Amino acid sequence: MNGDLLDVRNLKAYYRAQSGLVRAVDDVSIAVKRNEILGIAGESGCGKSTFALSVLRLLKPPGYVEGGEVVFGDLNLLELERKELKTILWKRISYIPQSSMNALNPVMRVEQQFRDAIRTHRGKVSKDFLRKPVEEALVSVGLAPEVAHMYPHELSGGMRQRVIISLAVVLGPELVVADEPTTALDVVVQRGILQLLRGIKNRIKSSVVMITHDMAAQAEVADRIALMYAGKMVEIGDVNALFMDPLHPYAQALISAVPSISDKRKLEGILGLPPDLRAPPPGCRFHPRCPDCIVNACDVDEPELVEVKKSRFVACHLYR
Amino acid sequence: MSDGRILEVSHLSKVFTLRKLLSTKQIVAVEDVSFSMPSGEPMLLTLAGESGSGKTTTARLILGFIKPTSGEILYEGQNIWRMSDENWMKYRRQVQAIFQDPYGAFNPLHNVDHVLAVPIRKFHLSDSKEETRGLISKALEVVGLRADEILGKYPHQLSGGQRQRIMLARAFLLRPRLIVCDEPVSMIDASLRASILNVMLDLKEEWKISFLYITHDLSTARYVSDDIIVMYLGSIVEMGPVDEVVTKPLHPYVQLLIGSVPVPDPRRRWKDNVELPRTELTSQSLQARGCKFYPRCPKRIEKCANERPDLIDIGGKHLAACHLYQ
Amino acid sequence: MARIFQPLRPHIGIPARNRKFVTGLSFFAVTVLVCIVGRRLLPFNPLRVGRFPMDNAPTPQHPLGTDSLGRDVFGQLLVGIENSLQIGLIVAIIGTLVGASIGFIAGYYGGTIDTVLRLLTDVFLVLPMLPMLILIASFMRVVETWMMAIILSIFSWAWPARQVRGQALSLKQRDFVYMAQLSGMKRLEIVFVELMPHMVQYLGASFFFAIFWAILSETGLELIGLGPQNTMTIGMLLYWAMFHAAVFRGLWWWWSAPLFSLILLLISLYLVHIGLDEVANPRLRARGK
Fold first, then answer.
1. Is residue A99 part of a domain?
2. Using CA atoms, how far apart are residues B16 and A117, in angstroms rounded to an integer?
3. Cβ-defined contact of C175 to B118 (cutoff 8 Å)
4. Considering the domain boundaries, does residue A190 fall inside one?
5. Quick check: C7 and B110 CB within 8 A?
């Protein structure tokens, strides 16, 4: 897969819980292309957050990476020394964490937070040298330059989120990973944030990996979507293809369960519950809830992710 | 006596006073809110708004958990704060609620049977253990759960969706006339949300229970509601039949809101970008005069800064509080 | 009363799975047992002066040696631990009960009651215990055990009050309290059926901390000579050892025995406290174990 920005191969990340081993991410492969917005979608517990943390080596115990490769250029991120990893993180790949509103240091002004980030990568820099890039960064997310002198608690949730986004792009990374960037934000602010993420791709030509369970947000922003279920990747495809013509039964069910403000068609929920990841069902993990389950195939063999049409991947026995 | 209305909210206001050491701050959470829900046909009314709109406070006022600063809440014509004890118990039974956090609504020390058995006991709905068990099984069935899978378990052993359904079952047990739902599905996964919303619709159609649905999620609001009320900073800015308000919003705030809701259809993306505030608006909510939306309104006129617009009927029971229509 | 504990019964297994709790509790239980039983089994009265040869290093007959007054150190230690525990227990019970009641009323009812009680609690938290005690001691020649207990109790209720108030504040906001109201429960009923069982969990941790604190404070006071002169406690044993210059005279068994027993006792009490705290507080539970 040349030309890909980031290539994740067979990633496995587990949690050692009191009651057993939780297979949160179980053999997941996906490539992030250059200059695209890849949406990683799925409901709670599907492993998408664990996936992001593992790729960036931010996963903390009791979680750990069991295996796989994360190829970035000619480096395998999982095998880098801590020192080398530090030079890449933030400069070439940046991360917007899930509870990002608390990711700002409450006792530092906004400009100081920038200074820390920049100093780690460009060495000691003077206050004056910083002023212009910081102001530009803030303006690029629609904030007034005065915000640089403010403390996080003086800002609203939406503004803090914008500060974090500007921090994430100030060094011009090639890839930005955003984990649930719009939780707890009001609708209008959410739109602004999502549009900012789109802007990152268009303006600075980075790629964005947006992780969210909100399918409507994915539809507005993503170019391609990778859908996860119970630790597995079940479908990958262009956003139009996925919404108009979903292939995997879970994708079909999910799309028809999402309400839309623009129509009133009847919604159908999915019966049953997601599986316990300590003891996932044999074969396809979705088979107990699947209306198209093929006996003696789906409950026995795990389907592999295969390319069934151009750039469309599905892990389902219906498409062999 | 009741003149055809289950619930009537009349000029309701609630002001919170924060007493600090040297200063007192007043927060106007709800300001002069009036609406009603007719008896007769069951309806699902949505109270929509973002954070700070006052919708949750309104819900708590209606449920009688907090006292209004001014205004009245009438249940079947009677002011809930001036009811006799007997009528108050009747009110307690006939107006039930579902809350946002499916975990927090349960006491983690008790198993889920407790939350279903207590109302039966307190409202004397059954004379025997068998009858209680029967009532509980039926209620669980109505919401799509199986008694043998649910009873005896503790809250942490069940999923969020199951817990919310148990809460609906609990409310249903009391055969209420109105169920107030405060963000019932926002903490639940997408695939389970639809089922809960469908249960609510079932309860409305089959069992003739009205709902007051509080949410910030306009997509689910459109799906379940008959009518909708949109609140902004404590006041009602627009109300009317949901399809009307969503497709032809009148108030500029509601227009902005509806336009900003993401649509799960990649062919219909936002055409233009919204502009977010560049810096914190300092005296935002303390507009003494004038329309509360004035600082952010793209269509404001001079009148808007000085006079607060009244809520008037623009046609077809579609009301808006905006000088553009007066 | 029983109704408060009933909802907790099915959950009794949970503390048993917490390592810290079990370790601490076992050690504590063993110590208590050994002291109570051991003291009854002693063939002599360890407090009688001059019974044995003085200043003897440990021997098989006197496993912890003898002191300068001809008393067996091991026997004194058994008596001492038991008395210290007694004082500790009394102080902890009074402190927890009084403190929890005040804290709960303050947190649950709020308003002026809360402001007043909170002020009271803060005052007692801030009062410097040592100078107060020195003041009291300078007015009285001899301090009895019960006086120690009362004085310590005056200071011991403030911390539980603060903890419990915090708990009450957060609990009363929880949705399940609103649910109980919607189900027709009256206020008092909610307090007993829904809230009290919760509080008991926290009180457990608080109680053991109170014992810990009481023994520590008591020993501290005794070490500087403010203790009950006529009673033998761990602290008094240490006091007498220092009074007779045991350190300089090389009578290491006299001071090291009570010192190490004290440390072990305190550690075990603290482990029980942390263990119960982890059980009651799930957030801590995720980290520990």
1. no
2. 41
3. no
4. no
5. yes
C175 touching chain B per CB within 8 A = yes
* Chain mean position to CA C91: 7
- pTM score of the predicted model: 0.83
For residues C207 and C153, give the distance between their C-alpha atoms in angstroms, rounded to a whole number. 13
Q: In angstroms, what separates the C-alpha of B217 from chain A's closest C-alpha? A: 8
**Smallest CA–CA distance from B259 into chain A, residue:** A188
CB contact under 8 Å between C182 and B109, yes or no, is no
Instruction: Look at residue A101 and tell me if it is in a domain.
Output: no
The total number of structural domains in chain A stands at: 1
Q: Is A187 close to B260, i.e. CB distance below 8 A?
A: yes
What would the pLDDT profile of A185-234 be if each residue is shown by its tens digit?
889 989 999 999 998 888 888 999 999 999 999 999 999 999 999 999 99
Residue B190 and residue A195: Cβ atoms within 8 Å?
no
Chain B environment of C198 (Cβ under 8 Å): 107, 109
Q: What is the ipTM of this complex?
A: 0.86
Give me the sign of the Cα torsion angle A64, A67, A68, A74.
positive
Instruction: Among 1.10.287.3510, 3.40.50.2300, 1.10.275.10, 1.10.3720.10, name the CATH number for the domain at C80-279.
Output: 1.10.3720.10
Q: Where are the domains of chain C?
A: 80-279
Domain that holds residue A216: 4-80+207-319
A99 burial via Cβ count (<10 Å: 0-12, 13-18, 19+): exposed
Q: What CATH number corresponds to the domain at position A256?
A: 3.40.50.300
Tell me, yes or no, whether A308 lies in a domain. yes
Flag whether residue A192 sits within 8 Å of chain B, measured between CB atoms.
yes
Q: What are phi and psi of A15, to 5 degrees?
A: -120, 135
Query: Beta strand B178-182 with B5-19: parallel, antiparallel or unpaired?
Result: unpaired
Per-residue confidence in pLDDT tens, chain B, 326 aa: 445 789 999 999 999 988 777 778 888 899 999 999 998 899 999 999 998 899 999 999 999 999 999 999 999 989 999 999 889 989 999 999 999 988 888 988 888 999 999 999 888 888 888 999 999 999 999 998 888 888 988 888 888 889 999 999 999 999 999 999 999 998 888 888 998 999 999 999 999 999 999 999 999 999 999 999 999 999 999 999 999 999 999 999 999 999 999 999 999 888 888 888 777 655 444 556 788 888 888 888 888 888 888 899 988 889 999 988 87
Q: Which of residues 184-243 of C touch B (CB under 8 A)?
A: 184-185, 194, 197-198
Query: With contact defined as beta carbons under 8 Å apart, do A27 and A11 qualify?
Result: yes
